[in-house]
Amino acid sequence: MVAVIGDVHGCFYTLVELYNKIRDKYNNIPVYCIGDLVDRGNNSYETVKFIISENILFTPGNHDYMFYHFFKDPTSVFARSWVFNGSETTLTSYENHEEAVFKHIEHIKSTPLYFNLPDCFLSHAGISSHYKKLLNIDSAKNLDSLSDYIYNDYKTDRGVLWTRDSLLDLGKLQIVGHTKHQEITLDENANAVYIDTGACVGNKLSAVIIKDSQIADVLESKTNLNDII
Questions:
Q1: What is this structure's pTM?
Q2: CA distances (Å), origin 5, targets 83, 119, 125, 156
């Protein structure tokens, strides 16, 4: 059994509230986040610091990689894209914490692009149905054969950081963020659950509790206005 939190986007106070709800109800289970820790909301520094301090595992999102590349590879497409994708609030949140920037971005880069867990498969944007043309995936047992494709394609529009494609049915429940929905949304055809419920636009931050490739519970926190105003 695991808990998986959707896209936080700098909504630190909302994250803390939701995390406490998870711990109150499921004290000992691992907690994961589906990425996009930074940008949009006001408190990216506090968010990343909290994620690290609480040992919350996460798959990086496209916003997290843009943050990393802005400092490490400023001429890259990732870095140049960040200027148009919410960088201002992140830079503001780190103004008085410059010493933490490189610690945080190195932590982001050290995290895997996906987790193939017994209960589910986690990545930020999901595994595009494009890969069905390359592989014959009949069950979750074959998912590790996707690794090279995932890591080679992460910069492309079909990659696990960016894709808006229909997703590939992996033979186990796939948990993703990236594409906002008002409510947690199940795509039955892909056996995929979208859990980005727009915390950064004033809706809510959501988490799913997964057991045996099924949603066992849903926990949510309305966006704390201190995160967005």
A1: 0.96
A2: 26, 15, 14, 25
